[in-house]
Amino acid sequence: MSTFVIAAIGALASILANRGIAVFNDGLRPIMPEHIEGRMSKAEIASTSFAMGFGLVIGFGIPVSIGAAILLIHSILLATDIIGTWVPKGAFSDIIAGLIGALYGVGLLTGLQWIVNIFQALPVNVFDAMGAISSPVIMAFAAFPALAVALQQGVKKGVITLAISGLVRVLIVRFSPLNIGNSSISLNPDGMAMLAGMIILLTFASREKSEEETGLAAIFSDRVARIKKNVWILAVMGALVAMGTALHILAGDPISLNLVKEMKYTDAAMAALARAIGFVPLVATTAITTGVYGPVGMTFIFAVALFANNPFIAAALGFVIIVAEVYLLSSIASFLDKFPGIRKSADSIRTAMSQLLEIALLVGGINAANQMIAGLGVFLVIGLYLLNEAAGRPIVRMAIGPVGAILVGIIVNILAAIGLYIPPAA
Question: pTM for the complete prediction?
């Protein structure tokens, strides 16, 4: 079932990208109308998609997936964006895109386990240390709402948001699990801190009112209609992703991925829900203005799949949620018209997430490398980061930490093989 689901996700996502119905990359979505409406050639949109996504697949999606042996959705859907946009137009373009996407999905699923097995079989076990790559992301991700608030509302309000989020985390650590009657509810401190931060972010943003509505839904009514026309194929995509999430073979973000690895499914669902709330302005705004949706919608499907924790129930819920999201787009647009601050928060949220992931994954890569070989690991990852900066960042910052840790793992085993490193006794 896992192989079938991943193959179907890879195939359908590639077809959606090829048709210009949905792409995963939030940065690519606003550019898609340029190609759809004939102002950008197939070659131009393909090269743009590759430039935006390839580094994140290699440097972020796959390394984070290796650390948990669970596929981060970015490793699949950023690549299917590339596949879909690269397949030439023609009578068989959907078939070709679907076939390549399916093969990629299956190859990624089986190849990931193959890579994990190789790392575990090496003379120096570096696989356990790989888990440290994304560990700081779990703890640090709750801070992104505070950064988003600071970017949009000022540093003072950002500090207030960070302080309240931190207090919520302290309270959850102190009093969780909550005993209600005969049941006990365990809450993830980082997920609840992030949820608190998102609520504050939306509260601050909602205070920015517009004296006159921009009529977002009316201005882009034809593009909203285009998304509604494709609602059923988008819903099938949502069902497949939800099923894969409930099978615990993929995850929507690094926090929930690591919580699923630890079999903390409710905590993972809460973290995914908090993230989804923050994605509403981003996905809705880009969808309404471009007529191109995301293959995972507003990401609520990840949360419901983890709450359901059953692949068939998750598939049904994922289908229904995507349909509901699409048909609510006009209402969401009207809401965003009344609260322009929430609409503006989309850019702040995306920037905050990117900056936070850059730092958290760098720290994670340093920690993982230091566990592999103390001292030298830190030296190599920081050195790689500095050289990458000096070279004009040929590797995206987000990828440096994971890529550096993997390179250190390989170097440590080479040094051990030639007798220049003796691993400490277990």
Answer: 0.79
